[in-house]
Specification:
The chain is of the alpha+beta class and about 725 residues long. Among the domains are: about 90 residues, no CATH class; about 150 residues, Galactose-binding domain-like (Jelly Rolls), CATH 2.60.120; about 200 residues, no CATH class. Helix content is about 40%, strand content about 10%. The protein has 29 helices and 14 strands. The strands form five sheets. A four-stranded antiparallel β-sheet has the order 2-9-4-7, with no helix packed on it. A four-stranded antiparallel β-sheet has the order 3-8-5-6, with no helix packed on it. The protein has a two-stranded antiparallel ribbon with strand order 1-10. Strand 13 and strand 14 form a beta hairpin. Helix 11 runs parallel beside helix 14. The longest helix is centred in the last third of the chain and has 20 residues.
């Protein structure tokens, strides 16, 4: 009876039904019937209902079959052709069902990244939302999923931020403001800082918005050690304060003869005129030559902080900007140009385009009446516009994305926040109907598409975790924040190159190019790279660098502070590159303290770990994959002597990162499916469900037919947003 029902309701073709049923009966039902029900999955009981009635279960089956995780090693398994035929039969039936709506949450708050970008594009104000708002909670890998509420404490911060942004945009404030910028203590300041003139050493470059034209005071304080003594005071040093690379003041810094260390930097204070708007403020030292101590420390490229190395030269701790002390007016700032235009004096003409962009839709007379009273009640037009802008920035329609309507304006907003993490521009809001493919391709060419690197890729690849990674100082004494940023930049530039040049996404897995500055090249042992500028470098085979799995950023965030972790690395690969994340550990797993000796080599320790029944099911999947990266230490340096034999759950074995890449590239659909799922989760602002998987397979098929190009995945996701 069950066989007959399967033929009638599950698959239309009798021969195909017989083959599929026989395969399920042979390889799956013994473990997944009503009695055994391994993993909580009972396939036997739902076969008679037809595949379409249980898409969630059958999508899990497809994922396990695709990854070759099931049937497990030791059980009867199909050959490769059998796997492909069974997967094709199941997905054909799943994809034949009527398409489901691909929609995200109808109501959600802007993340702090989206807020910052929206303010930038709306008012040309560079606002640091990370300093103003708390971190958004991460769910399913991204921070735009659980942002549905607005606690009272956060609302207060939004009000304060709106007032500050409005004052800065209009430039009406004449009261001096004090801004203090502190430099991280683990930044090495012995070498050139990007953005400062060549020939200078260390210091800091600050992008600061000066609200009005006038005089400003800049004060510099130097780094001190735990005894409050200025670090690196060996001889005399010259310090410069620059504005847009032009020297404003120069000082001599020298040791205090009477040991009054406050005298050393008390005079580092300058007052000069600044035109309103954003400027690059630099504080830097002139080089004194190379001390003997520095030469002896080679090949180390870091010298900072008494707790690791004594500084060889003084370094900047804090830059304080006070002003305007003598305001001269607002000046012609980018914000005022955007707000007031050539000579706007009509409040409606000023506010209507801003309101349209902020609220992401056409504006009615009733909408304008929500903000015009702020202008009418003010003492001047500029004060009124400032109040109106502050009100717009705390309005519900700005702070929240309300996309419950399936109209073109909501679609434009979805596309903009997906690709730009920001507001839709005038072209997106004006085009009716919206040509999703044309607009998606245009938006990918726009500089704002960098948000896919700084927002999506940073979260997908765990690059944000680099800020919290601090390798053990005794084992890795040359690790500093400069290296941390260089590691992040290399990976960001690889992902940006794939976007900008519309390359195959498989270049993320293997490529003969990378991007290096001197700091990173020294870390990798690659010669002939000099200076702080990142440049594209062609890699000669054989090479230990290239794709994501060879980059120090990924290798560092998947390690412990003292050593590598095949478990973390294997889990990262399965979750982020193959979308086959192992389940969380079961409850009540016994502690391993005293059970496995820490003196054993890591491969032997993990082998004993896998002997425990509660651990084996997951670690049999993760550990062998992670071992393939053992040629890289905890901060991504190459070590040729390591044992890097690895394997996958399907029984395949490989040697090192090259073998792992070869195995991944044999079945590229797995990686591209994982990337598509991550991008769709990010685009929709929710976790994917079984009903979304037919759309994912359609997008992957489109990408395959077009050389796996990044744009084809993006266009496919963009077009799915309309459904």
């Amino acid at each position: 009876m069950r066989y007959l029902l399967l033929i009638l309701f599950c698959l239309p073709d009798w021969a195909k039904a017989q083959t599929t049923f026989a395969a399920l009966e042979r390889f799956c039902i013994d473990c997944h019937d009503a009695d055994t029900k391994k993993g909580g999955v009972d396939l036997d009981s739902i076969l008679q209902d037809g595949i379409a009635k249980h898409p969630a279960t059958w999508e899990k089956v497809v994922k396990q079959l695709n990854a070759r995780h099931m049937p497990p090693i030791g059980k009867k398994r199909p050959d490769e052709r059998g796997y492909d035929e069974l997967i094709a039969a199941l997905t054909t039936e799943l994809d034949a069902q009527p398409p489901q709506a691909i929609a995200g949450p109808a109501f959600r708050r802007l993340t702090r990244t989206e807020y910052q970008n929206a303010v930038r594009d709306l008012l040309a104000v560079e606002f640091d939302a990370k300093a103003a708002f708390p971190t958004d909670e991460i769910s399913h890998g991204f921070d735009n999923i659980t942002v549905g509420d607005l606690p009272p404490a956060l609302l207060d911060r939004y009000i304060s931020a709106a007032q500050k942004i409005a004052r800065q945009a209009v430039g009406t404030s004449t009261q001096p403001e004090i801004t203090a910028i502190r430099v991280r203590p683990d930044i090495t300041q012995e070498y050139h800082v990007p953005g400062l003139p060549l020939g200078t050493r260390g210091g800091v470059l600050v992008k600061h918005v000066f609200a009005q034209s006038g005089d400003y005071e800049v004060q510099v304080r130097l780094q001190r050690d735990r005894n409050e003594q200025v670090e690196g005071m060996h001889g005399q040093h010259q310090l410069q304060i620059l504005l847009d690379r032009e020297v404003q003041s120069e000082f001599t810094v020298q040791p205090a003869k009477d040991k009054n260390y406050e005298k050393i930097d008390a005079h580092l204070k300058a007052r000069f005129h600044v035109a309103g708007g954003q400027h690059d403020l630099g504080v830097t030292f002139l080089p004194n030559g190379s001390p003997v101590l520095e030469r002896l420390r080679q090949p180390y490229k870091s010298s900072y902080n008494l707790h690791r190395h004594p500084r060889l030269n003084p370094a900047v701790y804090q830059v304080t900007i006070t002003g305007p002390l003598k305001a001269e007016g607002t000046g012609d700032t980018p914000s005022r140009q955007l707000i007031f235009g050539a000579s706007k004096t009509d409040p409606e003409a000023i506010l209507k385009p801003i309101l349209r962009r902020a609220w992401r839709r056409d504006i009615t007379a009733a909408d304008l009446e929500c903000v015009l009273p702020f202008v009418r009640e003010a003492s001047s037009l500029e004060k009124g516009i400032e109040s109106a802008l502050a009100a717009i920035l705390v309005s519900r329609e700005f702070l929240f994305r309300t996309e419950q309507k399936a109209d073109e304006a909501a679609l434009a907003s979805k596309l903009a926040f997906f690709l730009w993490s920001s507001l839709p521009d005038d072209e997106l809001l004006s085009q009716r109907p919206l040509d999703l493919e044309t607009q998606a391709r245009r938006m990918l060419r726009d500089p704002r598409a960098k948000a896919l690197v700084t927002n999506f890729a940073d979260q997908w690849l765990y690059l944000r975790n680099l800020d919290s990674i601090t390798p053990d100082a005794r084992l890795f004494p040359d690790f500093d924040h400069n290296l941390r940023e260089s590691l992040r930049t290399e990976t960001s530039l690889l992902f940006a190159d794939v976007i900008e040049n519309d390359r195959s996404v498989l270049d993320l897995l293997r490529t003969d190019r990378t991007w290096l500055d001197e700091r990173l090249a020294v870390h990798y042992g690659i010669p002939h790279i000099h200076g702080s500028r990142f440049r594209e470098v062609r890699l000669d085979a054989p090479t230990q660098r290239g794709g994501l799995l060879r980059q120090g950023s990924i290798l560092t965030v998947t390690s412990y502070a003292t050593r590598t972790s095949p478990v973390i690395r294997g889990h990262w690969i399965l979750k982020n590159l193959l979308a086959t994340e192992p389940p969380p550990p079961p409850p009540n797993v016994p502690a391993l303290d005293g059970v496995i000796s820490e003196t054993l080599p890591i491969r032997e320790r993990l082998a004993k770990h896998r002997e425990m029944a509660a651990c084996a099911s997951c670690h049999n999947l993760m550990d062998p994959v992670g071992f393939a990266l053992e040629n890289y230490d905890a901060i991504g340096r190459w070590r040729a002597e390591a044992d890097a034999r690895g394997g996958f759950a399907d029984g395949s074995e490989f040697e090192g990162v090259s073998g792992l890449e070869d195995t991944l590239l044999k079945r590229p659909e797995l990686f591209v499916t994982a990337l598509t799922e991550k991008l769709m989760t990010y685009a929709l602002g929710r976790c994917l469900e079984a009903n979304d998987m037919p759309a994912v397979r359609k997008i992957v098929s489109r990408a395959k037919a077009n050389g796996w190009k990044f744009s084809e995945i993006i266009v496919g996701i963009a077009e799915s947003l309309r459904k």
